# Entry
Amino acid sequence: MMTIPAVMLENVVKRYPLTRALDGVNLTIERGKVVGLLGHNGSGKTTLLKIIAGLRTPTSGQVRVLGMAPGLETKKRVAFLPEVNTFYNWMTVDDLLKFVKSFHPDLDLEKTAELKAFMNLKGESKIGALSKGQQARLKLIVGLARQADLLLLDEPLAGIDPPSRAKILHALVGELRQEGQTVVISTHEVKEAEPIFDHVIFLRQGRVALEGEAEALRAETGHSMEELFGEVLE
Amino acid sequence: MQFEIDERQPIYRQIVETLIRQIARGFWPPGGKLPSIREVAAAARVNPNTVSRAFQELERTGLVATRRGEGTFVTTNTQVIKDYREKTARALWTDFLGKIRELGLTNEEIQRLLAELREDE
Amino acid sequence: MFFQLYRKELNGLRNIFLTLLGLIMGIDLFLVTRVRSWGYWTALHVTLIPLIFLLIWAMFRAFMLTREEWKEGTAPFLRSLPLSGWSIVGAKLLAAFTEWLFLSLATVIFSGLFYATAPLWGVEWPALPDLFFSEQTVQFIVVSGLNFALGIILTGLIFQLAYLLGRTVNRFNALVSFACTVLLFYLTAKGNDILSRLFANLSGISPETISLSPNANAVLTYLKLNIVIMLIEFAFLFVVTGWVMEKKAES
# Structure
């Protein structure tokens, strides 16, 4: 039996009155991979993730997430963590986890306890009182504690202090990741993130400038992903 | 267990090479258990998928074997390790000699230089 | 799941609810100090004034709750949950309605207390007119209450839809929302007119006949009909709003 890819995009275009956010994107993301979605600000990374998450509808083209059109069914199996101010400021960390649990029964409460300890967050803290870095960690907790088949993280490192970044990234793909979970991480901090990617997609002005297995690209070009980022996207 | 990773080269190959060197040196003795994929991934700070690929590659050399549910073990067949060590050493020598010969050194000159270097140590 | 969402909305508006409740109580206490100078009857009537404010306030609340999601940046998270657009829209409408209901109820209760304690202010206990208890009056109060309630929900829905339509574009959101508000109010009024004419043909009651002969029964029938009309309009707009929330709005 052929396994269904986590994400398939066919000629996806997202047009706005004055701009084109995505200009014909073709992509296949295999199940179980850790994928880096790399590009400068405004290259279309967020739009792409939001289309996969079902928050935006493409102007034209086909989108398949876990074999289905984005909708309620895919939202049950996808965790999307946006870049900024994700959650309700007036909730406490535990309120939020309870709230998420009521919509996603797959949220593992034991794991949230473990993650809170790892990320150094207190359950009774008000979300509005958390620092930017703590909010970024909270997003990761919410994403990682679910058995979601597909985890979409938009700039998860923004706001996290550089010394913690590597630690969190490696925990993210290592002990914290659920078995077989597909992870798509958008970032422009390639240096720190690159050893964790199986597959990389370089996005430039709404188009895929280059994509492939990170290892194959290294073998072919003799460049690191960071160097390729500079070369492809300049 | 330490891994120096150069992001310009395929990471799995660097892990394979490091582990082979460590096995050849006896850091992982014959019949001994290798660290798990997760442990190597954590030490090298890379994706477990990459380490998993490195382990598959390593198995193909015959230096290690994976027992289901138990882990990956270094072969007890010391001959295989010895052969592999010699094979790798020979490859390094060939490479090295090629470069030396490009300088136009004769066999006698190479021998003399080697003897001198050994005295210096 | 709808209930969890509804509860979240209620928790979210708790602070403002308490502030308004405090304000209403404050006004009542203020009036207590004014009984002597203004006279008891004036003060008693003023205790009911918050009802008018609450009516207007409630019309904007569902829209305010929706706008907050976008303004605070929580909309992407909310919309990434496996929730239909209709439950998101419905939870906000219901929460706004609950707030209105309880604050109005509180206003009436405080006013009732003011009335009940009349002897304390040295006023003779005012008797309520007999009319107040006639069957027709009770019916009238219930029917107009339902008209107000539906009017609030319908207006709330229109503002919400107009706001969401403004969110289907990536520029000029406010302008689009504004234009949609105007258009939607016009269309709803027009729709109401068309539907009431349609029903008038069926029942023989129309606004024109009421203005000619303002008899209580005709007004009552007209108000009852208006409830049906608003329900129809609500159902139609609700289907559209939920769809826009789920499929068309961008966050």
Remarks:
- Residues 79 and 95 of chain B are 24 Å apart (CA to CA).
- Chain B has a mean pLDDT of 88.
